[in-house]
Amino acid sequence: MAAAGPTAVLSSGKTMPLLGLGTWQSTSEQVINAVKTAIDAGYRHIDTAQVYGNEKDVGQAIKEKIAEGKIKREDVFVTTKLKPNFSRPEHVREAMTQSLADLGLDYVDLYLIHSPINFKYGTDPFTYAGNPEEIYDDVDYIDTWRGMEPLVDEGLAKSIGVSNFNSQQLERLLQNSRIKPAVNQVELHPYLAQQDLVDFCKKNNILLTAFSALGAPARPKVFASGEEEPVLMEDPSVVAIAKKYGKSAAQILLRYHLDRGVSVIPKSVTPSRIQANFDIMDFSLSKEDLASLGQLDRKLRYVGANLFVTHKYYSY
Ligand SMILES: NC(=O)c1ccc[n+]([C@@H]2O[C@H](COP(=O)([O-])OP(=O)(O)OC[C@H]3O[C@@H](n4cnc5c(N)ncnc54)[C@H](OP(=O)(O)O)[C@@H]3O)[C@@H](O)[C@H]2O)c1
Questions:
Q1: Is residue 141 annotated as part of the catalytic site, yes or no?
Q2: What's the half-sphere exposure (Cβ side, CA atoms, 13 Å) at 251?
Q3: Residues in the active site (predicted)?
Q4: Which of 267, 302, 307 to mutate to test the pocket of ligand 1 (most atoms within 8 A of CB)?
C-alpha cells in the first residue's frame, strides 16, 4: 500500500497523516472522484465538514475504495467538523450522529469545533439575509467542548479538536477541559505565518492544520476582503524557490508546512493537481529557504470572517 507520507502522533495518542485532501466547495461528483483519486495517489487523510454538505460523497468514495480492497477503514484518517449552529452542548451529539450517518462510518478520526463563532440552532449564517447579529449564539466554546468530550468516551470520535481558535481561546480551553484539544485547524501560509500561534501550539502539544495553504484562489467573495489581494502561488519568492527545487509553487507552499511540523489539507478536484500536491515527499526546504518564506508574512487572511466581527468570540 502507498505510504501516507509523514505523520504526527496527537495528544490523544492517535497518529495523523500530515498531508490530507481538502474538500470544500466542490460538487458531489467532484468530491467522490477527488477522494478516490487521492486515495489512489497515497493520501490517507481526508478533511470534510458538515457545512460543506459533502459528507455523503466523502463516505461513498471511502466505501468504494474499501470495497475495492485498496484500503481498510483504519488506513484512512477522516476529519469532520461540528456545524456552527449545533454548538450548544445538547446539540453536539445530534450533529455527530448525523455526520456519521452521512459518512457511513462508525467513528471519525477527528471531530473539530468548526469555529468559536456560533449561530442559533436551526439558522444558517451563510444564507441568512438579515443582520447576522440577529442569529448569533454566544454559547461559550467551553460549554460546546463539554458536548465534545463524551464523543471520545463513546468511541464516536477518536480525537477531538478545534478550528479557527486563537491562542487565548486555546489557553482557556486547555485550562477548562478534561480531554485536551488535539488539533487546531486554521488558515496558514507564508502570507499569514502566525508564528506566535505555531509556537503556542507546539508548546502545548496541539497539532496545527493549515487550510487555504495555496491561497484559496476560488474562495467565495463573502470571505474575501474586497481589496485587491496578491496571489500567493504567483509570489516571486515562492516561484524562485520552486524553480530552484524543480517543483511547482504549490508544492513549495505545501512542503513549507511539513517542514514546520504542521499538517496541511490542500483542496483540489483536478486529478493531476491532487497527485502533484502529494508528490512532495522527495525533498525538503533548506533552513534558508524556510527563512525567506518566513519573511513574506503580511498578515493576509484570504478566508476571513469580517462579516461576523462583532461576535463575542470573533477570533482574528
Ligand atoms: N476549518 C475551516 O474553517 C476551513 C476553512 C477553509 C478551508 N478549510 C479546509 O481546507 C481545505 C483547503 O483550503 P481551501 O479549499 O480554502 O483552499 P486551497 O487548498 O488553498 O486552494 C484550493 C484551490 O486551489 C486550486 N489548486 C489546488 N491545487 C493546485 C495546484 N497544484 N496548482 C494550482 N491550483 C491548485 C484548487 O483548484 P481545483 O480544485 O479546481 O483543482 C482550488 O481552487 C478546504 O477544502 C477545507 O477542507 C477549512
A1: no
A2: 23
A3: 52
A4: 267
